[in-house]
Amino acid sequence: MASIVYHGVGPRIAYERRIACLSQAGLARGARVSLGTIRKVERGERGVSDAVLEAIAGALGIDPTRLLPERALPDDRVHQAMPGLSAVLAAYEEPGDGPCRDLPELREAASTVVGHRLSAQYARIARSSPGLLTELCRALGTAAPGDRPEVARLVVDACRAVDAVAFKHGANDLSARLLDLMKWAGAQTHDPIVDATVAYVRAELHFGAATHAVGLRALERALERAPLTDSAEALAARGALHMRAAVLAGRAGGGDAADVHLDDARKLGDRVPEGVYRGTAFGPDSVRVHEVSVAVSLGDGHVGRALRLAREWRPPLGLPAERRSGFYIELGRAQLWSGRPDAAFESLKMARRIAPQHAREHRWVREDAATLRRLKRADAASLSSFAEWCHAGASS
Fold it and tell me: Do 47 and 103 reside in the same domain of the chain?
């Protein structure tokens, strides 16, 4: 995939470097680029490729989008990756000959891409995913019988990461094909927890198509098949299904069903520590985030529940960035509906600070930013800048 070159990033890199108390030489060492490159970039004498941008951002410990000029498009890399991903999906059962890393290396690569998904690093996923998926499909076709279930699980993990990018960027056909590949690979794991994970992810089809009642029934069938053991992973798998079922029930207008599923999720959440189980964050804090989501899903008459919870609790830093960002997006909508545009804008900005790529591609962020720009004039310049950043008013 061709590399994008970004210009005008020098002042932002210099600013973030000083905030991090790094010298130019220290940043060069951390990013593994030459000191001359750092100097030229900061002076504006050269641009940076997406690979160098990510290396510098990694050394600074920040999201790469924080280094980009306001009008730059970090999601260009995502759109450039789409044809390559389509080619992978067209040939996943017959990926052909080629290089393939050994299982420990593939395990590490899949773990990395899962981490990128949880932290909403979508451009990084797009950069690595076509090659990784090709390797994993190749490895699955040649795996020894004893290794095949694990390799199939890695395929599921990678597909889920790529699907998060496709779904959030509106590539619905690609998302559906990735979900089919997840289901195909998941069946080869012979693992009921993987089956529950696939059902959890496939429910997003019903969010996108607004077939909430159908999606709810699918999740309830998945709950009937979910493992009933008391292991932390099994408890988390059932709890995650209940969380997502609660939101779907809310979107379908079923307040009673939403409360039942939310209560079941809460009980299961109290039995495990907050953590990431098989790629899904679950625990007491994740359930609280979904309480806000359910209240917003149920509509105007229920947003008071979301606001009351937000007065008493905010998501801790230990939660994955995508989930924390989602909390503030949901809270912003509740605040907007309750006539608090200033608070809503602060929540949207918080969502952006936590996970810029997640917030930028979220349909509700665009809708609410466009509404705020119409309603509120006092902070017009800041609102306009934010609205342009997230393409407010663009079709979605």
Answer: no
